[in-house]
Amino acid sequence: MSSTYIMKRSDLLKLVQAAMDEYDIYGPVQRRTTWVFDKIDDPSRIDMDYDNTMMSLKKFFIPSKEVMMRFNLREMSIDDSLPDVKAERPQLLVGVHACDIHALLFLDRVFGGKYVDPYYVARRENTTIIGLNCIDPCKHGFCKSVNTHIVNEGYDLYLTPITGDKYYVHVGSPKGDRLLTIAGKLLREATDEGHEAFKASMKHKHESLPVGLHLDNINETFDMAWDDPIWARLGEECMNCGSCALVCPTCYCYDVADELDLSLSNADRTRKWSTCLYHDFALVAGPHNFREDPPARLKYRFYHKIRGALHDHGIIACTGCGRCIEHCPAGISVKDVVYELQKRRVGVPVVKGG
Amino acid sequence: MGDNGKPTVGIFGFTGCAGCQLNILNIEDHLLELLELVDITTWRMAKSENSKGPWDIAFVEGSIAKQEEVVRIKAIRENSRILVAIGACATHGGLPAMRNFRDIDEMKRIVYGEKNDHVDVIPIKRVADYIHVDYELPGCPMDKDEFIRTVKALAVGKTPDIPNYSVCYECKIRENACLLKENKFCMGPVTSAGCGAICPTYGAPCEGCRGPVAQVNWGAEYKILKEMGATDDDIKRRFLKYCPVVADTPEFKELNF
Ligand code: SF4
Ligand code: SF4
Ligand code: SF4
Known about the structure:
The complex is a heterodimer of chains A (354) and B (257). Chain A has 354 residues and is α+β, with helices and mostly antiparallel strands. Chain A has two domains: 4-208, no CATH class; 218-345, no CATH class. Chain A has twelve helices and 14 strands. Chain A has helices at 11-19, 82-86, 98-111, 118-125, 174-183, 192-208, 218-224, 230-237, 243-247, 294-313, 323-327, 334-345; strands spanning 4-8, 24-31, 34-39, 65-72, 77-80, 91-97, 127-132, 157-162, 166-171, 187-189, 254-260, 266-273, 283-284, 288-289. Chain A has an eight-stranded mixed beta sheet with strand order 3-2-6-7-8-9-1-10. Chain A has a four-stranded antiparallel beta sheet with strand order 5-4-12-11. In chain A, strands 13-14 form a two-stranded antiparallel ribbon. In chain A, strand 11 and strand 12 (266-273) form a beta hairpin. The longest helix of chain A is centred in the C-terminal third of the chain and has 20 residues, at 294-313. Chain B is α/β, with parallel strands linked by helices. Chain B has two domains: 8-155, 3-Layer(aba) Sandwich (Rossmann fold); 167-253, no CATH class. In chain B, strands 2-1-3-4-5 form a five-stranded parallel beta sheet, with helices on both faces. In chain B, helix 3 links the parallel strand 3 and strand 4 (80-86). The N and C termini of chain B lie far apart (50 Å). Classes of the chains: A alpha+beta (354), B alpha/beta (257). The interface between A and B is large, with 35 and 38 residues. The structure holds iron/sulfur cluster (3 copies). One iron/sulfur cluster (SF4) binds next to helix 7 of chain B.
């Protein structure tokens, strides 16, 4: 049985419409100067030509604020919200770029690895993903430099735009088979002509995506750069607003707090996003703060993304999506920082760009 | 504690618009529940019979603008176990403190005429300039949910959780497109969160009413606004609008306006 199909671009909307009985559907929708993955009730709102969304997909798996359990202090009882999470309606995410699929594969290592987060895993299992192969570069991304422009797993259907206003559709999983059934006659098996069109699109992609960074010796670079003057310079520009980490598809840190109701008999245990850029993030009893100085916190974020992730997960945590570059009010660019360090520290030949 | 075992609370107004006290009245839905938790023994805006203290918790609204107020705030402090300043005027001087940028005698003449010797006015300061303040709930007006959370925390002996990260946090969580990208002079990055980024959410740049965020980097925000075409005057006005007292801080003086 084949796993590649052809679909008219406009038929995606019909597929989404047909899937609505079964899933809560989210897709890219324009909002002022950016896009958001928004709940879709009217498929025509989906903008498959979107550049990039501000918030990544992590919000669907670790919501920005979530009650994990409720407890009653008079009865000393606990009500875990996990069964509710497991009972949520299946969600279908439409139009997910390759870099964002890589981000989810990274988060799987964090939340589904040695220490399993059952809330994350439940939502992940409950989610179906229609990926979108970008064949043209986006404004701020540098996926090819960090090797996230190609995905071979992590999607259920993967759409590559080909000539004739069509998609070349690859089925990646049994969940994708379910979508095939829903799509019915909207898809037909790819023929040689379709395969050729796909190859042409991929050739175009490889030619159009720039490479501006090399990650060779990146571990050594960061080991050497601990006292580099660049951190003080960036510290002057950074306001520790946390935007970079909030929009980052792989920044996963959160805070946990218990909140009593006014009767003082019930409490919610809530987790909400936090970031290492904030003063209280590394504040512990004492009070002591591991990173009291704001520039130390910016530096820490870079080290954790690159050096720390390599150490813990064997892969850097930057997917090259470019969100932090686009949304930093101070214009700080991870790409430029890594470029500068690489060039100065190990002299890796690079071409500026991409 | 009052006779009923509940913590006693006093709510006091100084120089300001009384909007924060009004916001406490606006709690409506939860006011009765709140009264189950604490005993408001003094609140001139809402009660005709008021105790003279002591109080477990005092909430103080408004800036200190008269000699008489200096005496009164010190007395409240002496009679309170915990003292919380509420609203921009109390925490940062607020709009009233803009008066400090004009000559005080000239202002007296403009408002009260030539015979003004009896008028008690002094340079306006925030509450913490005169007494020790345990907690501050900033904002113009103070956020009522934050007020409720603070009352709950203090009633059970916890430290209230008052954000000291920037408005951008709440703005990003709400997935607002950033206004700085539209060349609007937003103060979000240098302003303390807690309001839910309500202004940018409705397309209006943050005016900084909750005051500077912890370890504020004025220089970076200055550079951003400058590059967007703001003049020094524009920037200064924004930085000082709700927090005129900031003008006296070393971080601000470094900017050399
Ligand atoms: S978005 Fe920019 S200014 Fe804000 S914390 Fe990140 S690097 Fe600093
Ligand atoms: S609009 Fe203002 S508050 Fe919102 S992200 Fe931009 S700078 Fe921050
Ligand atoms: S967005 Fe800024 S001006 Fe508006 S309420 Fe919040 S702190 Fe105040």
